[in-house]
Design brief:
With 98 residues, the protein is of the alpha+beta class. The protein has a single domain, classed as Ribosomal protein S6/Translation elongation factor EF1B (Alpha-Beta Plaits), CATH 3.30.70.60. It has a four-stranded antiparallel sheet, with helices on one face. Strand 2 and strand 3 form a beta hairpin. The radius of gyration is 14 Å and the shape is globular.
């Protein structure tokens, strides 16, 4: 029986006060997590952008968009890991499967 997978996108905002190495490590960590449970088709680092409203008294954030395919239980686990990571200011995961 074939393993069921879905296509997802996650957009997350990294705290801009982190250094370049810490930011790159976070991007790599979440990419590795997704690759461990599926396949990553694209990681697009948008860089620092102005926020629509202040978050944690900050006006900027480092935006990253990652597209991946994984089993249906993985997005909830990824969301949990992003919520407990202090370097992630905001995140949203959406299904591309309609």
């Amino acid at each position: 029986m074939a393993k069921l997978t879905g296509s997802y996108e996650v957009l997350y905002v990294i705290n801009p006060t982190l250094g370049e190495e810490e930011t790159a490590a976070l991007v790599a960590r979440f990419k590795e997590l997704a690759e461990g449970r599926g396949t990553v088709s694209d990681v697009d680092e948008w860089g620092k952008r102005r926020l629509a409203y202040p978050i944690q008294d900050l006006d900027e954030g480092y935006y990253v968009l990652m597209s991946f395919s994984a089993d249906p239980g993985f997005p909830a686990e990824l969301e949990r890991l992003m919520r407990i990571n202090t370097g992630i200011m905001r995140s949203i995961i959406v299904s591309k499967d309609g």
